[in-house]
Design brief:
The protein is mostly helical. The chain is built from 15 helices and 2 strands.
């Protein structure tokens, strides 16, 4: 009875996390279009979340001595890299397209497993990769000579590659009794990401006046500060925390499947709020990308020495994990 209740709570939290992460791009794009540089929006998001997570970081301050390389890599790839590439892509291509391209990450993780770790992958997983790539071809309309800005597509692919680094780093040192607490890893990942982004984004040159005014959201004016608050509190802090807790109550596999809804949520919200309409082939291609990603991540074989990777997102990250693993200590999604 208690196990069933815990699973239901975990499912509800996973759904909430997917919806929270899915709304980040929709809230960020009006700020970018109002004059803020994509890197400045990323800096505001990550730095605001890092400040909120400072008490958690202090509680887990021993991680700095125990796992400095893990925290540094996590902050560089899982936080700064994913967010910067994704938000930069938003300035050039629709929200739904950017997130769907980013969801190639589970397929790319399989390539890492097969050719870097030299572990076998199942035939079904290979089919998932083919479907994901084929769906992506429909999303970007390759028959029309690349229907979207090539730089925007490359930036979204960069976000997917950074997610691969996130998955791999999440697996490093996550097993055993001395495994780092996932909340601590996320908190320090945000801090490292904020420091890196401060040097890269140079926020002192930001158009701060934009935050004091209103921006256009699908034809309606809304306070820029309200959107920023949503991005920091809901689409970052709340999304990360609910994502981590949901994986503790569910298996990483189940939580990852639910996380697929993030791309659907982002696309629907962009359609409704930003009037970003996709053609029928693009919608079909997006569905194929999600199906391919689902097949790829759920078909990864169990490794003799532990799972391949665990992850949770930016901002949209599906963990590739062994089906039977329910290790609550695994660091999960930290992102889109």
């Amino acid at each position: 009875m208690h196990a069933s209740q815990g699973r239901n709570v975990g499912l509800a939290l996973a759904l909430g996390s997917a919806f929270a992460f899915g709304g980040s791009g929709v809230a960020a794009k009006p700020l970018i279009e109002a004059g803020l540089d994509p890197l400045h929006v990323v800096w505001l998001r990550v730095t605001g979340a890092a400040l909120i997570m400072l008490p958690v970081a202090w509680r887990h301050r021993a991680l700095v001595r125990r796992r400095p390389a893990l925290l540094a890599g996590f902050g560089l790839l899982a936080v700064a890299g994913v967010q910067a590439c994704y938000f930069a892509a938003l300035s050039r291509i629709p929200v739904g397209v950017a997130l769907l391209i980013e969801y190639l990450a589970p397929a790319l993780v399989l390539l890492w497993v097969r050719f870097v770790q030299r572990r076998p992958v199942t035939r079904a997983a290979a089919v998932g990769v083919v479907l994901a790539v084929g769906g992506l071809a429909c999303v970007v309309e390759v028959w029309a000579g690349l229907g979207f800005d090539p730089v925007g597509v490359l930036l979204a692919l960069g976000a997917a590659c950074c997610q691969v680094g996130y998955f791999v780093l999440s697996d490093q040192g996550s097993d055993g009794a001395d495994a780092p607490d996932p909340l601590g890893v996320i908190a320090y990942g945000l801090i490292v990401g904020a420091v890196v982004l401060t040097a890269v984004a140079r926020p002192w040159g930001m158009e701060w006046a934009v935050l004091g005014g209103s921006v256009d959201l699908g034809g309606s004016r809304i306070a820029a500060g309200l959107l920023l608050g949503w991005i920091v509190l809901i689409a970052t802090v709340l999304a990360y925390v609910t994502g981590v807790i949901s994986v503790r109550k569910l298996s990483p596999q189940v939580a990852g499947v639910v996380a697929c809804l993030e791309a659907v949520v982002a696309t629907v919200l962009a359609w409704v709020l930003l009037r970003e309409h996709l053609s029928a082939p693009q919608i079909l291609g997006g569905a194929v990308v999600l199906v391919g990603a689902f097949i790829a991540q759920s078909s990864t074989p169990k490794a003799p020495s532990g799972p391949v990777a665990g992850g949770a997102g930016a901002l949209g990250e599906i963990p590739v994990a062994e089906p039977e693993s329910e290790d609550p200590a695994r660091p999960q999604r930290a992102e889109r």
